[in-house]
Each structure stands twice: as C-alpha cells, then as structure tokens.
Amino acid sequence: MAARSRFNPDRGLTRRMVGTMFLIGLLYVVFVGVLIALLKGAWPLIVLVAGGMFVVQFWFSDKIAAYSMGAREVTPRQAPELHGAVDRLCALADMPKPRVAIADSDIPNAFATGRNQEKALICATTGLMRRLEPEELEGVLAHELSHVAHRDVAVMTIASFLGILAGTITRIAMWSGLMRGGGRNDSTGLLLLVIPLVSAVVYVISFLLTRLLSRYRELSADRAAALLTGRPSSLAAALTKISGQMSRIPTRDLRQAEPFNAFYFAPAFSSRQSLGRVLSSHPTLQQRLDQLGRISQQLGRP
C-alpha cells in the first residue's frame, strides 16, 4: 500500500484494511438487504439514499472532516516552519506533498485526511506547534504522513461513515414503515422493534471492527515514522508531552474534539476519563512508548 513512498510498508496493516472493508461492506449489504425485505415498498428510497450518501462521503470526506475539525489551509509564507517540516519529510519519503493546514485549537494534536495522496491534507493545531520542539513536531508530522502513504486514512473515513449511514437508513426505514402502515397495525409495531435492534447490532459490530483497525494503524504509523526519521526518541517525547498536556485542557474542549479521535495523532481525553480509554481508537501510551523503545534499540539509539 505504501509502494510509492519510502515509508516502511506494513503488510499486516494492508491485510487488516482489506479484511475490515470486506467485513464492513458485507455487514452493510446484509443490513440493507434486511431493510429491503422488511420494507418491500421502500426499497428504491433505501438504495438511493445509501448509494447517494456513500458517493458524497467518498468524494467530500476530506473537506467535511477538515471543516469539522477547524482546519484552515495555509501557504508557505503564512506557516514557513510547518511547511518546511512537511517539505523535508516528503522529500525524505519520496512522496507528493499534501496540502498543509492549521487548526486554531489549544488541544495539542494533528491529523490527516484525504482519499488519496493527491487529495491529502495534513493539519497541526496551534497548541501542538506551540508546545513541541522542531524534531518532535517532525516526528508527529511523519506519523500523519505515513497514514497518507499507507492509505489507511481513506479506509478509516469510509469505515466510520458506514455507522452514520446505518443510523440514517434506519430513520428513513422507520419513517417509511410508519407512512406505509399508518402507525397502527401489528406489522408496523414489529418494524419499530426489529429495525432499531438490527441497526444497533450493525453499529456495534462496525464500531468494534474500526476500533481494532484504528489501534493497529496507529502503532503502524508510529513505527513507520520512527524508521523514516531515524529518531524514535523524538516521537516518544512528543507522545509523552502531548499526553501529559491533555489533562490541562478544559473538559468542554476535549468533549468537543472527542468525535474526531479516530483521526487525531493522540486521543483527546484526560486521564480521568477511564471509559474513554477502554473504547479508545488508539493503543495506550505505554504500548506506543514500548514499541518506540524497541525500535530505538534496533537502530542503536538508546
């Protein structure tokens, strides 16, 4: 998946991405099939909405995500240090330079979006750039660029979107059932019970599949970034610093950022939110630091 760059390829990540997309795709084909079987008269609307939303999400997912997270594209004159770091890393990785953006947020974080390398965007928050040293910032940016090179950004965007699709189709199906049955007969009552149950099962399965992929892809990006830059200690320092700073961010700001955790370099929650860590899209800080420590030993850098 990373043949066009010098980022360390990860066949394990490739297998997981293919497997996750196959299983989620199969899951939603079954889901739509069940809805069509239950609501025979509404199948054209269900198919139209499902297909239309998927096409819109595929073509505009990067713009939607960037806008939602407050990204503002910047020129080399507006952000020379950030552009300089991205330029160096792209030259080192032999990959096309993505668009560069800044999000005006005190939460120290970064993310990448885009369905391919040509449409990719990499964004750092003002809080991240203010807190990190240049080598630490390059480590974080290399991590995000590896997501672009491995194309797992597009996979995660599509996989996450299917959960939204399930909820939308469920509401349309229930509305269609009520309109068709008048909301009074036994079949309508059964639909009101079965459809939300099926939707919930689909959402839970897709949630677990995307979480498993997300945790692995973060470890893969850490590994690829550390090997590309040759400075795993800088990435480890950035991880430690960012995780320590999260507890100082107001809880309200963390909650607003939480829906986008799957895209972020580090999850936006404080150490007090234990449930959030259990359901996190990222591996634990200790897992990430342990891996970087092993890479340091391999590279001969204590």
UniProtKB/TrEMBL annotation:
Zn(2+) binds at H143, H147, E218. Keywords: Cell membrane, Hydrolase, Membrane, Metal-binding, Metalloprotease, Protease, Transmembrane, Transmembrane helix, Zinc. Its cofactor is Zn(2+). The active site is at E144. It is found in: Cell membrane. Residues 76-293 form the Peptidase M48 domain. GO terms for molecular function: metalloendopeptidase activity; zinc ion binding. It is a multi-pass membrane protein. Its EC number is 3.4.24.-. Pfam families: Peptidase_M48. Binds 1 zinc ion per subunit. Belongs to the peptidase M48B family. This is Protease HtpX homolog. It comes from Streptomyces oceani. The gene is htpX.
